[in-house]
Amino acid sequence: MTSKSPVASDISSPRSHNEDHTTTAPAGTVVQSQGVTRMEAIYRSTKTNKKTLWLVGGSVLVCAWAYSLDFATTSHYAVDVSSYYHQHSTVLSTLAIVTSIISAVSKPFVAKISDITSRPYTYILALAFYVVGYIVAATSQSISAYVVGEAFVALGSSGIDLVNDIIVADLTPLEWRGFLGALLSTPFIINNWFAGKIVQAMLSRNQWRWGYGMFAIIMPVAVCPAIATLIYLDRKAKKTGEVNLASSGEAHRVEKETADQAARGETMVDTVTMAKPEGSWLKKLRRGLIEIDAFGLLLLGFGWTLLLLPFSLKTYAQKSWANPSLISMWVVGGVLLIAYVIYEIKWAKMPSAPRRLVFNKTFIVCVIIEASYFVSGNMRGLYWSSYVYVTKPWSYQNWVYYNNSLTLALCVFSPLAGALQRWTHRYKTICIIGLCIKVIGMGIMLNGHKATVSTGALVMTQVLIGGGGSLAVVGTRVASQASVPHQDVALTISLLALWSSVGRGIGSAIASVIWANQMPKQLRKYLPAKATDKDVQALFNNIKKLRTAYAFDTDMKRGAIEAYQHALYYLLAPALGLAFVPLIAAFFMSNFYLGKQQNAVTNVGVDGLPLDEQDRNPEPSHKPLKEKIKGLWKA
């Protein structure tokens, strides 16, 4: 086993301690958070009884089932809700931006909370936001109340989803990480067939409120087994003495390294534990906010929100882009983002994006892939459901089946991607192939200078984008987790999700501007001459009227379909161009060996004890640039 890696040393650097903790530790000191240590303890306590480990997996899978049923149904109600409040085009984009940014910024919060407390108590916190959100959305009497409710739901659901992912990463080796992580999406394969019937029943009776409200009951019932199981195992590990920072896997690893160094006559590395919070509850709260980097994340969240929201609000703002309020939002948003960068560099005691991750090549490449992937994806997908809603005379049930087909393809092919990773012990080539397939799928969406209406092409594009995307997404997530020590896994998952959500927000903002600019013009151009400007504006704001008020073979409906085809082209063409960005970036990923280790940096097992996988991982290349470019495929 080699000496302590630079990444591991950075975890234990003096900057990792705030002034409320114990005295500053020297470089090389182990600092591992409580949440990570407790999960290592749970794993060690289940080694003698594998049934309990299966129980954890089963309870987390039940959470994933409820989450997938939520996603498969509630995402379709927004079209009717926005039309109900006569603000379809604006509400869809505004809601997408707000929920994307909230999901983005909340995930590092959730990850930090799960590290400094524990995974089950983080479940409870996320569940509380989730339930409150759906109660508010279901009982809303205004569009503002509905958006607020959805914002709470975004916070809660992103937290539940993140904790699911963190637990899988905690308890699985790299060779199985992609496959077992992908299993969390498989309940959607079953739920897809029920979702159409549920949405059909709710929307045909105009009962979208119950469509939201039922999840305030379903999710608590589904999450409680996972919470109870983890709390039970946590307490059991405490009783057996496993939950002890000094006996954590990281400490065992460094203890072994220390012995090896002593045998070679090298300087020994000390091991200390992070001090438990002491003092008044105000001091504990302050310490917790510092560890979470609350101020930095608030700057980031408000910055992106103020920067992106004007793109969806400008349609109804007086003077459009020249509106003083929108200009103020842009300026303040830009200033806050600059302030975030400066604060993280100069003053943050525990930055939300620590230096060891900012300069981690594999992690940064994964961020570029995921962020650009979702910018392109949301440009393509934000109004795609509305497009199909108008252009195809399908029932609500069949419309839902079609909309869910992309996610269904993702869920079917994701375990296949994980199985390929288990077989090959690598991920890079699989990821590149997936991104190529996705580009082909996006190309099929176009029919010359307008969007296709061919049913065969509509179905094929969903299958290819979903199938290709699954190969890529599973690859980038495993790669990012492999590139960091266990201590940083939760933060890495959350930061990758953060920039994915920011990418969604940016894609939605761009799409809203293009749509608001093109759709009224195309409607005016292709609707019959008898249609008034008032008719154009009404159909722009309420697509349910367009679907129900005109027969499919009328001039109004045909003109509207033609308008939708041409307007959507201006979203699909740039989205296709952006789809090449993640493909190019994928060539620059490291290609770690996926073995029995928890990560590829410290080469420790899931229980925290050392393994010997180091020689299978790529070494830093010192070749000339020309040779590096030639070797990208093998790297």
Précis, in short:
This protein has 635 residues and is mainly alpha-helical. The chain has helices at 6-11, 34-46, 50-74, 77-84, 88-116, 119-138, 143-171, 174-183, 187-204, 208-213, 215-239, 249-263, 281-292, 294-313, 324-346, 355-358, 361-381, 384-391, 396-424, 428-444, 455-482, 489-526, 533-541, 543-548, 555-578, 580-586, 625-630; strands at 446-447, 450-451. Helix 6 (119-138) runs antiparallel to helix 7 (143-171).
Q: How does the overall form come out from the CA principal axes?
A: globular
List the secondary-structure elements in sequence, H or E: HHHHHHHHHHHHHHHHHHHHEEHHHHHHH
Question: How many helices does DSSP assign?
Answer: 27
The total domain count is 2
Could you tell me the mean pLDDT?
A: 80
Task: Return the CATH class of the largest domain.
Answer: Mainly Alpha
Largest sheet composition: 2 strands, antiparallel
Number of strand segments: 2
CATH fold-level topology of the largest domain: Growth Hormone, Chain: A
Strand ordering within the main sheet: 1-2
- What portion of the residues fall into strands of 2 or more residues? under 5%
Q: What's the alpha carbon Rg, rounded to whole Å?
A: 25 Å
Query: Per CATH, which architecture of the largest domain?
Result: Up-down Bundle
Approximately how much helix is present in the residues? over 70%
Residue runs with pLDDT of under 50 for 5 or more positions: 1-30, 266-273
| Class by SSE composition | mainly alpha
Family: Belongs to the major facilitator superfamily.
Keywords: Ion transport, Membrane, Transmembrane, Transmembrane helix, Transport
Subcellular location: Membrane
Organism: Metarhizium guizhouense (strain ARSEF 977)
